[in-house]
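Why does residue order matter? Because the sequence determines the fold. Keep that principle in mind as you read this record.
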Amino acid sequence: MAIRVINEKCKGCEICVKKCPQGAITMENKLAVIGPACNVCNQCLEPKFCPFGAFEKVVEEGVAGVDISQYKDVWVFAEQRDGKLMNVSLELLGEGKKLADDIGCKVCAILCGENVDSLVSELYEYGADIVYYASAPELKTYNPDSYTKVIYQAVLKYKPDVVLFGATHVGRDLGPNVAVRAETGLTADCTQLDIDPSDKKLMQTRPAFGGNLMATIVCPKHRPQMSTVRPGVMSKLERQANRKGERIDLEVSFAPGDIRMEVVEIVKAVKEIVSLTDAEVIVSGGAGLGSADGFGLIKQLADKLGGVVGASRACVDAGWIDHSHQVGQTGTTVKPKLYIACGISGAIQHLAGMQSSDYIVAINKSDVAPIFEVADYGIVGDLFKVVPAIIDALD
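Structure:
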């Protein structure tokens, strides 16, 4: 549902501009215009709001009450920063390709930015059959108002069956914004996506109740079906050089009031932030380290292997190490070639964030620690004796 202005009844008195609690109404050519800030609170439908009755509720094309059979294709939001695609977008293209094959449709990317044309060919090479491309100065840096409007309008026009976002800071903000506008559902932080062979619905699986069970969620009556997926969970396709696809340029226009936020300055963190998502080797420390000093030993092993330092939630909560190092359900989901867990018992929240690693080595004093259930190699012993021995062996 949405609110529409009946132009024939609008007198341009501007009373509605002052009364709208969301600040969603502006004036253009002496007529009221409703912007994306509208959350359909219905206050403008009250007789006291507009003395001329110039507002009405309508069912928009492409949202509630549509024929689901009109929707096709799997879309992936191609998140980019400073002209570089985020890895999670490429991972989702790989997963989107599998879903599209099961449904019998195409996998598409939707790319927003300013003069990032070079990324279109890269998206083709990582599996995109079609790239929907929106280029404008208002899209240079992420802004929830501008990005939501562009993607929502594209959804209305082209009617994708599935839309996937990476569960990044941007994706977790943008996905719900688009879902609300499209009046559809969104499943957050999915770890598995499948297609129901009986009716081609998207089955979206995510941890629930603190990771103690896995819930599979479907969206049977609304479209598009939408999910956010954590980085590092899915696998990207092998890049095919010179692979070609179709490019569709989206029309981009913004009215006054559409964009309520202005990005004045981007300040990047001065402190070193570890990149767990891209690491091929991660050496993580847990409560068994005893104190923050224990991470000195963990870093020695990580440096020796050309890897990075990870940590359990217990260490982060204790203030031993920065949150950027946290692996797990409330930290970063990782999928390195080698994961070494030192003094980590293996709480289910931690296992959910690293159990897809190619090889897992666990070092723990307790031979019944849950971490050993997912480990390829287990070493029962004092990490302060085992880790130096491994470093000596590497030397």
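The first strand starts at residue 2 and ends at 5.
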